[in-house]
Fold:
Amino acid sequence: MHEMALMAGVFDIIKQYTTDLEESRVTKVTLVVGEMTNAVPEALQSAFAVYSAGTVVEGAELLIREIPLTAECMSCGWAGKTEKHLFICPQCSSLGLELKTGRELYLESLEVD
Amino acid sequence: MEIKINTGILSSNDQTAVENKKVFDQTGLFVINMMGSPGSGKTTVLEKAIDILVDSVQVAVIEGDIYTSKDAQRIEKHGVPVKQINTGGACHLEAKMISRVLAEFNLAATQLLIIENVGNLVCPVEFNLGEDIKIAVLSITEGDDKPLKYPLLFRESGAVILNKVDLVDYTDVNMDVLRRDIIRINPGIQIFEVSARTGRGIGEWVQWLLEKVKEKKIRLPKSRVFL
Structure:
């Protein structure tokens, strides 16, 4: 499953920030995942459990912040949530919608005690 | 204590993809990343396209599969350099897998590099390889509901090849619905309706590809123009 590959990426980043933290433990990891990103929260949780085992992250909470799909119409200026994944302006029916949010996939923060 | 990070999770893959792209851009090499379900006809489309392409450009191919070199063996018969990557389990190609095989090609003598990804409508879309354009391959026998079910692939692709159109009369596919949904997800996408088996429509896709290869050569001032 590719959530494992994504979680490998998360832990590559976590390692950079935790190599100096000898006595501390990570208590929370916050990921931001957009609605249109192909990453299923449940699968991310499972992958997190696998990768955190035996590390300073073991037992930490994984918080996933989901960002909805929103777009802006280049023709009439309408902005808002799109209907599913259809990029048609509900105001002027133009096909010229630009995606604003919904493709995020980043590690936002760690909480360490 | 909170540590703010704000770093993209795919940043490691994306960084390698950027490095791959720098290598490709050095000689104005145009690169496409072909994705589609297992059985959509990616390899057959490629075989037919290569036979026309080689009259105009030097082509190289990277084949991605979980197991076997069956696809590379098929491409080899068409007389172009090809390398098979076996992921051994991963459902998608990643940028570092591509960078590892680049040394086996004479990239300076190549104008078009075609990467055929692992058969999968989902995962490969998230992993940039350094390509210029993603190409989606969907066979009409898979059904007209697939674009809405797998929108990210169609959103991110520059073109979609609708394959097996010779079988339209043997299915219940509604081609108008299919075209409409694809355009609604990605208004700028080019749609090519083909039959890899009969060869119908392949020439049009090849023409479009050759235009893209030429455009890149013109755009990058340091590269020599081969066409």
